[in-house]
Input
Amino acid sequence: MAKDAITGARTRFGNQRSHALNSSRRSWKPNLQKVTVKINGAVPKKVYLTARTLKAGLKNGSIERV
Output
């Protein structure tokens, strides 16, 4: 199972609740993207990042897209 290389985000599991409070198992998957990036000026590397991590890293300058 893939995970975010920086934050470690993975698939989360829990219960889906109906109006009558019946429960069934469900999962929430992160929006993982395989991108080639330089993290803190290091060698370019292909990693999985969530869209949220990628957007934040590009904005604050810690991630540079190659």
